[in-house]
Amino acid sequence: MTRDLGACQVVRPCALSDLACIGRNLAANSRCNPNVPGRIPARYTVQSLPFHAPYFNATYIDYNLVVSNHNRCRVSEFFINLSSKTAVLSLDCPNLDFESNRLTIQHASLQEDRQFSYRIQGTYPLIRLTTNLHASNGLNLCSSLTFADVVALPKFRLNPNNKQTANYLSRDLTLLNIFERECFFWRASLLARYFINSLICNYGCNL
Questions:
Q1: For the chain, how long is the longest CA-to-CA vector?
Q2: Which domains does the chain have, with CATH numbers?
Q3: DSSP 8-state symbol, 195
Q4: Quick check: 81 and 8 in contact, CB under 8 A?
Q5: Residues in Cβ contact with 202 at an 8 Å cutoff, skipping those fewer than 6 apart
Q6: What tens digit of pLDDT does each residue of 98-125 get?
Q7: What is the pLDDT along the chain (207 residues), one digit of tens a residue?
Q8: pTM of the full predicted structure?
Q9: DSSP letter (8 states) at residue 162
Q10: Cβ-count burial of 68 within 10 angstroms (0-12 exposed, 13-18 middle, 19+ buried)?
Q11: Residue 114 half-sphere exposure, CB side, CA atoms within 13 Å?
Q12: Three-class HEC string of 100-156
């Protein structure tokens, strides 16, 4: 289906459920391999995943991060803008669950960093991942940014490893939406690449 949007031509060549069709379209315009495993596990472990939260002056490292329900993600949008030579691929991921041993490193000017550790588990009702693939870099997923929209905030459990950490952890969730957006800025590419490389077209990215 093609429709004109001013000077734009937007083409939707595939049904959103037809991952093989999406893979063939990407492969025709990039170096990805459409011969993919066709599945990802319902549960897998990432050895460590660091992320930075500038708003909170903190660095976080999730050790032995267990990701569940990633296999339930579905393609929610795929189109090619012929005018801008950009492909847009979005995934909707319901009930993503993350559990890890988290190290928080709190930074402050003119002070030594403080460290806190705790067990954390959180379930997110919906995470929406959107990747723009540009012809100018060969529709290369490995060098493309994935934007994560935390559509609904998580339900989570915390288990501090010591009293110092228990006293540090805030019970005020007013800024949780900001924290989660900063967190998923770093998680988004891993999630998108693993799904796309496994089920749509393999770009050979390091996750």
A1: 61
A2: 10-200 (3.15.10.30)
A3: H
A4: yes
A5: 32, 33, 34, 35, 36
A6: 999 999 999 999 999 999 999 999 999 9
A7: 444 444 569 999 999 999 999 999 999 999 999 999 999 999 999 999 999 999 999 999 999 999 999 999 999 999 999 999 999 999 999 999 999 999 999 999 999 999 999 999 999 999 999 999 999 999 999 999 999 999 999 999 999 999 999 998 888 889 999 999 999 999 999 999 999 999 999 999 976
A8: 0.92
A9: S
A10: middle
A11: 11
A12: EEEEEEECCCCCCCEEEEEEEEEEEEEEEEEEEEEHHHCCCHHHCCEEEEEEECCEE
Looking at the DSSP bridge assignments, the partners of residue 63 are 48, 101
Residues linked to residue 148 through DSSP beta bridges, in sequence order? 129
Reading the block at residue 28, the tokens are 């025709």
Residues in the chain: 207
